[in-house]
């Protein structure tokens, strides 16, 4: 696994599509690894998972900063939240009506939930897969009548084998390396970080004045 992981990163370029594929692949590997340690109790119905996904809030940059997570990575795709926010911002700048419900960062925010923070894409996919508990702490996602689930002490760390733990550490190291590389960023007119890929110029006020360079994306 270590070798195939290394080649996965070696075969990733700074092209945004290549990085996007890498992120999807990492999220899949991490989700599968986490699911192996899951208590096979809760299987969500389609209706339950749909309403859970609909209830996920979209966090603002300020909210994420207030939570102390501005410099954190999504615990599933190991992408920095700052990069995920930049991706959301860029998508909205390209298309004001972008309603991709999987953009941005969210939190398991209901009173009975644990408060763990994820990119919306990964936690939505996890819930759509029928998982009824948080991938990080196993606390139930559903409101329960038993006092048990509302007791924070009932949460527990997932049982991860030493091999899996090492795999996750390795992925984290590779991803941190990737994102600490200055080439992996969009920059705007002020040189601020905007997202994945080789540095490109983002005009002030977004893309509204000149969509021609993106016309290929819509054809
Ligand atoms: Zn993620
Ligand atoms: Zn949790």
TrEMBL record:
A Pfam family assignment: zf-RING_UBOX
Bias (Low complexity) ranges: 145-155
Annotated region described as Disordered, given as residue ranges: 145-164
Domain RING-type residues, every copy: 74-138
GO molecular function: zinc ion binding
Keyword field: Metal-binding, Zinc, Zinc-finger
Domain of life: Eukaryota
Name used for this protein in its record: RING-type domain-containing protein
Organism expressing this protein natively: Mycena sanguinolenta
């Amino acid at each position: 696994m270590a070798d195939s992981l290394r080649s996965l990163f070696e075969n990733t370029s700074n092209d945004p599509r290549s990085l996007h594929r890498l992120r999807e692949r990492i999220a899949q590997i991490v989700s599968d690894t986490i699911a192996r340690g899951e208590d096979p109790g809760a299987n969500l119905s389609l209706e339950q998972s749909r309403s859970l996904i609909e209830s996920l809030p979209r966090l603002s940059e300020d909210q994420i900063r207030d939570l102390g997570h501005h410099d954190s990575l999504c615990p599933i795709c190991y992408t920095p939240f700052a990069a995920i926010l930049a991706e959301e911002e860029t998508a909205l700048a390209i298309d004001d009506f972008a309603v991709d419900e999987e953009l941005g960062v969210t939190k398991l925010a209901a009173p009975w939930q644990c408060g763990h923070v994820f990119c919306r894409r990964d936690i939505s996919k996890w819930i759509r897969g029928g998982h009824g508990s948080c991938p990080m702490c196993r606390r139930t996602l559903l409101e329960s009548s038993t006092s048990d689930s509302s007791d924070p002490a009932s949460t527990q760390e997932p049982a991860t084998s030493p091999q899996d733990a090492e795999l996750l550490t390795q992925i984290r190291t590779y991803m941190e390396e990737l994102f600490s590389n200055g080439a992996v960023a969009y920059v705007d007119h002020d040189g601020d970080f905007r997202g994945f890929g080789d540095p490109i110029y983002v005009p002030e006020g977004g893309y509204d004045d000149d969509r021609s360079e993106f016309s290929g994306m819509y054809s």
